[in-house]
Amino acid sequence: MYCSSFLQVRHDVQNLSLASVKVLNHQAATPRAIQAEKERASLAQRERERERDTETVRKLALQPFFFPSQNMIVAADPNLQRDHIVVVGPESSGTTFMLSTVHAALFPQTAEMKTDRHTWGPRAWSILPSAAIYHISLPESHHCETQTSEPIFLDFGPSPETEMDYLVERPTSPPKSLPRFFINISSVVQAYRARRERVTVFQVARNPGFTLKSKASHQHCSLKDKTKAEQRLAFALMLEAMDMPEVTTVCYEEILGGGEIYLRGKLAMQDIRPAGNVSLPAVGPRADDTQLIADIECNEDVEAYVTLCPTSPDTAFFQERCSKHARRA
């Protein structure tokens, strides 16, 4: 009897020990299990978001898109001695580099002079005591998949839309509330004239094929038809403004060939003359600056580029290629 009881107790203790080990093992595994479950849930959520985004892009690709003109109520600058400098151009055409060049010329003590293209220059918009400087890609802000309508502002500067104020002098970036937009360059210049404010525009043009490739690599727009329509509009706005005395066209391919001498000449056209000991940013050929003859489209963008950049080395190439294309047609 005693032996039987002892064996029963021993059996119960063994079962209890096994149960304790199982509980301990379960407790030890719980953090890993929880983490694994979190990772699975996160992966599933990302997959659902990817599918939703893909469906959104697919639907947008089927919808028409619009570029309506839109007024912007811009405040008058209380400082009539301040310059207003706008750097514009199609997305991925070299506008960020040109913005950095302007800052380096005007403010050599504070401008970022690194030549790595990822560390170029100041913030997109800067209101400073002597100059208000704006970088505006055509179009500017956000990605193209988020809108079917991209307004063309007829004026630009401190306003409720841009969340800028002449009395708050600071560098800033486009507010997230602002939609993807263009500016009508000639209309903006006329608006500054009407306010008797000094305005300068540097518009940057680049080989259209290279620009589209760079725009795609930066994932600005995954809708091919819309990408092309945006660039076509950008070139049209630049053509309209190119002969205004306040507007200077800067050609990316001529920057590659002419370097600092070319840039100083373009700055001097708007009476910006950096001291001789001031170094301007440098730019070199990039991986997307390659183009096969078969890739060239003799279209409106090419015609616009040839008009904007008549002395560019790429213009001679386009003229030869497209004249042959026209003769065959």
Task: Describe what you observe in this structure.
- The chain is globular, with a radius of gyration of 29 Å.
- It has helices at residues 2-62, 95-106, 185-194, 208-217, 224-241, 252-268, 300-308, 313-328, and strands spanning 69-70, 83-90, 125-127, 131-138, 152-153, 171-172, 182-183, 198-205, 247-251.
- Helices cover 47% and strands 12% of the residues.
- With 329 residues, it is of the alpha/beta class.
- It has a domain at 69-290: Rossmann fold, CATH 3.40.50.
- The strands form two sheets. Strands 6-3-4-2-8-9 form a six-stranded mixed β-sheet, with helices on both faces. The protein has a three-stranded parallel β-sheet with strand order 1-5-7.
Features:
disordered N terminus; 3-stranded parallel beta sheet; single chain; 8 helices; Rossmann fold
Strand order of the largest sheet: 6-3-4-2-8-9
CATH topology name of the domain at 69-290, in short, is Rossmann fold
Number of helices: 8
Assign the structural class, choosing from mainly alpha, mainly beta, alpha/beta, alpha+beta, or little secondary structure: alpha/beta
Strand proportion: 5-15%
- Overall residue-averaged pLDDT value: 81
CATH domain class name of the domain at 69-290: Alpha Beta
**Helical amount:** 40-55%
Give the H and E element order.
HEEHEEEEEHEHHEHHH
